[in-house]
Design brief:
By secondary structure, the protein is an alpha/beta fold. The chain has one domain: Phosphoglycerate mutase-like (Rossmann fold), CATH 3.40.50. It contains seven helices and eight strands. It has helices spanning about 55-65, 80-95, 115-125, 125-135, 145-165, 175-185, 220-225; strands spanning about 20-30, 45, 45-50, 75, 100, 165-175, 200-210, 210-220. The protein has a six-stranded mixed β-sheet, with helices on both faces. Strands 2-3 form a two-stranded antiparallel ribbon. Strand 2 (about 45) and strand 3 form a beta hairpin. The mean pLDDT is about 95. It holds the Pfam family His_Phos_1. It comes from Amycolatopsis orientalis. This is Phosphoglycerate kinase. InterPro entries: His_Pase_superF_clade-1, His_PPase_superfam, PGM_Phosphatase.
Length: about 230
Amino acid sequence: MSTPEQEIEYRQHRFSPPPGATEIFLVRHGESAPAKASTPFDMVDGQADPDLAPEGREHAERVGGRLADERISALYVTTLRRTSQTAAPLAAKLGLKPELEADLREIHLGDWEGGLFRRYTHEGHPIVEKLWREQRWDVIPGAEPMEDFSGRIKAAIGRLAAANPDRRIAVFTHGGVIGEVFAQASAAKNRFAFLGADNGSISHLVVSGDEWMVRRFNDTSHLQSPFG
């Protein structure tokens, strides 16, 4: 007597990166020191370079704990010290020396560098309203042109992906950069749709050739759990 053939089952697809793809964890640096008129920020190449605040150092420790088991092969930081300070706990856990990727530094805010952007945002400066209405950083006097900013971010992500096929990397960078990366990845009509990643947050991008795939944005679960 013949037995019925076992019916084939088709399970739901589970995502896996395409061959040769690069997984990039984009980490926004921990909270930086507050801006004070009495103590201007140090500057690096015309950009504000504040130290991490105590809260930011805790963010860094939590990020290190969260990503320590994620099979990360390389770490990248920018020219601004708050990124290298945030990367330090993870670098120590993994025994990796962070590499520099200068083109993932924050948007240059021109005449509003040195802490003035925070002050004018708090005070409700009329240009801030124009910035959000037009979705352009370069409404700020002397700020980096949007096309230049967009181009350097796209080139830097492509360069890191090309250098790290079939690997996972962590990039410690800035809120404006993360916002631009995910606006490009999603072809967002609203250029600031992803602006506002929290300090110490983790966002996840998969890059396969010219295709950028959004996997996760602004994950802060590690910042909310008990710390010990």
